[in-house]
Amino acid sequence: MIMGIGVDVCDVSRWQAAAARHPGMVRKVLTEAEAATPSRSQAARFAAKEALYKALGGGDGLSWHDCEVVSDGGLPRFELRGSLARRVLDLGVARVHLSLSHDAGVAVAMVVCEG
Prior knowledge:
Function: Transfers the 4'-phosphopantetheine moiety from coenzyme A to a Ser of acyl-carrier-protein.
Mean pLDDT: 95
Family: Belongs to the P-Pant transferase superfamily. AcpS family.
Pfam families: ACPS
EC number: 2.7.8.7
Keywords: Cytoplasm, Fatty acid biosynthesis, Fatty acid metabolism, Lipid biosynthesis, Lipid metabolism, Magnesium, Metal-binding, Transferase
Structural class: alpha+beta
Strand content: 25-35%
CATH class: Alpha Beta
CATH superfamily: 4'-phosphopantetheinyl transferase domain
C-alpha cells in the first residue's frame, strides 16, 4: 500500500548560486559524500530529501543528515538513520522508492513510501 508520495524539483543554477552565496549551506543539508558530487547531483540530492519529507508528511523535527542518497550500481536509494529512520518506522513504511533525474538545468526527485 502506498503511504506517501513526494516530488520536488531544484533549478541547478539556483542551487549553484545559493551554494556560492552561503558556503555552509551545502554542508548543512548534504552529507560529506553527497557534497563531493557535481552540483547537478547535489541539486538532485537536495530535491530527493525535500521529496522524502513531503512523502512522510513534513520535515518538522527531521535532520538533513539523517538521510543520505547513495547509489549502488547506478540505482539511487536512501540510507536512513536517526530521526528519519524513527519517522519511517513510526509510520509503518516498509520500503522507500527513489527516482532522480537532471536535465536542461533542472533536477527532479520522486519518492514513494510503501507500507
